[in-house]
Design brief:
This protein is mainly α and 504 residues long. The chain contains 23 helices and 2 strands. It is found in: Membrane.
């Protein structure tokens, strides 16, 4: 034992030395990246930065064209010209550009900006067509949808749980007073969530090298920035304006807030990759995402945003924490919009003094507490297995118009639908994602892979925290970008060695 211990000491010293050398190499590479583009003047820097984005600029222009004219030209004579042209353009796109276009369009899929149908056929819309084109191309290239990945078994497990909840909830259909038929029910509760998951994870099959991975992240960031600009300017910076905007987008303001939280978390983790001009633009995107969070007036979003920024600055050490605290105090004192402060104090006497839009003094949950209390007897009756999808609608909400449409708590909703057993299984899926991404952060030799893993782990953590006052464990609009980032994580996880070699 002594002899073994004596041998292990030099080995430990050697490992520490190697770790120290690797750490220095990483620091030198990061320093090199920061100094990689020393432009002669501002215009040469602007031109070089534009060259980074120009190859994918047509995707952005195509998406804007869809937002501007898609709904207007959905019917009538123009549809006979517009939609065949759109179909041909999408068909001729490369597989990568199809994916990038889908990234731009999917957050707007249910909005009034996008056509809900093409050539008068319900469901035949640009998002669904792109999804089918990408899936068909992947299968044609013999890359099976169920290709090997450590995550695919977990995704299959997760979607099986969703399907079981859907089947058990079929008896809910009559409680929606004709809104659902059997077909439309499964379209809404299973096929739509399945499309969201597969659309995101398709990135795993499309991406080939680090350059494409960088472009993939770039498209997500630009797509999110475009959505943030729309929210900031069309929302008007008021709670009433945001409620109108959410009706246009068909996305709840809390879901919008979480979309920006996801974008902020992943951008903070990966913003130092790319050329100097792109890194500057990434910092501008951070500002847009934070503005989007602020001006969606989601209080749970505010809490999560503060947590994300705190964790980001904590990684920088004591100085980072001090900078965070000082910046937060200064921003609150001098720059925080009054409308945001009013929203924060909603449900309190302070909020009443400030003239909040919603007069809910004494109820800081904004009406959620009543829904939670009403759900408890139903949970007790079906504690272990729940009663299937939309149990809140048929067992709690029905006949009580004063209650919200859903319990605004993912854990209570899951207990109603799936019981304790099902809720534990759903949480197992998300905890496994957190564990694998955190392990990637801690063990990967690739700096990029480690940072990507950290960002995704924090995203999952925020998702679970947000579930206390909203959202669902099912894949809907609030989690669009989680699934795209998961597709990226699958590729990064599979190609750690390759990424590490590229960085060396």
């Amino acid at each position: 034992m002594r002899y073994t211990a004596q041998l292990s000491i030099p080995n430990k010293l050697k490992q520490r030395k190697i770790g120290f050398i690797n750490q220095n190499n990483i620091k030198s590479r990061i320093k090199k990246n920061k100094d990689d583009m020393n432009y002669k003047d501002f215009f040469s820097a602007l031109k070089a930065t534009f060259n980074i984005y120009k190859k994918d600029l047509l995707v952005l222009l195509f998406a804007i064209l869809m937002f501007k004219f898609g709904r207007r030209w959905q019917d009538g004579i123009m549809s006979a010209i517009f939609f065949p042209a759109i179909f041909v353009v999408m068909f001729k796109m490369s597989l990568e550009h199809k994916l990038y276009t889908l990234i731009f369009l999917i957050p707007w899929a249910e909005s009034r900006q996008m056509p809900g149908q093409m050539m008068g056929i319900v469901g035949f819309n640009p998002v669904n067509i792109l999804f089918l084109m990408i899936g068909t191309t992947i299968m044609y290239r013999k890359k099976k949808i169920y290709a090997h990945s450590v995550f695919n078994k977990w995704i299959l497990f997760y979607m099986t749980l969703v399907l079981i909840a859907d089947i058990r909830g079929v008896d809910t259909i009559p409680y929606f007073d004709g809104y659902f038929t059997f077909t439309s029910y499964f379209l809404d509760v299973f096929l739509k969530p399945l499309e969201i998951v597969l659309a995101g994870t398709m990135a795993f099959y499309v991406l080939k090298d680090p350059e494409e991975m960088t472009r993939f992240l770039r498209m997500i960031k630009i797509s999110g920035a475009l959505l943030a600009v729309y929210v900031v300017f069309r929302g008007g910076g008021t709670l009433g304006g945001v409620y109108k905007l959410t009706r246009t987008l068909s996305i709840h303001k809390n879901a919008l807030s979480f979309i920006f939280l996801t974008l902020l978390t992943m951008n903070l983790a990966t913003m130092n990759y790319g050329e100097k001009g792109e890194r500057i633009i990434n910092k501008i995107f951070n500002v847009l995402y934070i503005l989007g969070i602020m001006l969606t007036f989601s209080r749970q979003g505010y809490i999560s945003c503060v947590l994300i920024l705190f964790l980001h600055f904590t990684k920088k050490g004591t100085k980072g924490v001090i900078v965070f605290i000082v910046s937060a105090i200064l921003f609150w004192s001098y720059f925080m919009p009054v409308e945001v402060k009013r929203r924060i104090f909603t449900g309190t006497a302070k909020g009443e003094e400030m003239g909040v839009s919603e007069h809910l003094t004494g109820d800081v949950t904004a009406g959620r507490e009543a829904a939670w209390e009403a759900s408890m007897p139903v949970i007790k009756e079906a504690f272990w297995f729940g009663r299937g999808m939309y149990t809140f609608a048929k067992e709690v909400k029905y006949g009580r118009p004063e209650l919200p449409q859903h319990p605004h708590n993912a854990y209570i909703q899951s207990m109603l639908d799936n019981g304790l057993i099902g809720t534990i299984l759903f949480l197992t899926f998300f905890i496994s994602l957190f564990y694998k991404s955190w392990r990637l952060y801690k063990t990967s030799k690739s700096v990029f892979a480690a940072n990507y893993g950290y960002g995704f782990a924090i995203t999952i953590l925020i998702f679970l925290i947000q579930g206390v006052t909203g959202f669902r464990f099912y894949p809907y609009e609030e989690s669009y970008f989680i699934w795209f980032y998961l597709g990226g994580l699958m590729w990064v996880y599979q190609n750690q060695t390759y990424l590490s070699e590229q960085e060396s």
